[in-house]
Design brief:
With 79 residues, this protein is mainly α. The chain is 78% helix and 0% strand.
């Protein structure tokens, strides 16, 4: 009782086609395809930009002295 038969799917597809029509569905699928292409192009552009950058990666120093100074600055601003 929980599964849908082939007839259920045919009725669902028929209703969707009646509501949206073939033209709107094909336009929608074209828009989805353009979105996927734009996404892939953006990902390639990001990879190219990362490869061209020669700047070294900066790291954060997690020493106790610097965090104590930061806590003192936060405490003085709260007063």
């Amino acid at each position: 009782m929980g599964s849908l038969s082939i007839w259920h799917w045919i009725v669902v597809i028929a209703v969707v086609l009646l509501l949206f029509g073939r033209g709107k569905i094909s336009d929608l699928m074209g828009d989805v395809a353009q979105g996927i292409k734009a996404f892939k192009k953006g990902m390639k552009d990001d990879d190219v930009a990362l490869d061209k950058s020669a700047e070294p990666v900066k790291s954060i120093d997690h020493n106790g002295a610097s965090s104590a100074a930061a806590r003192q600055d936060v405490g003085s601003k709260a007063v």
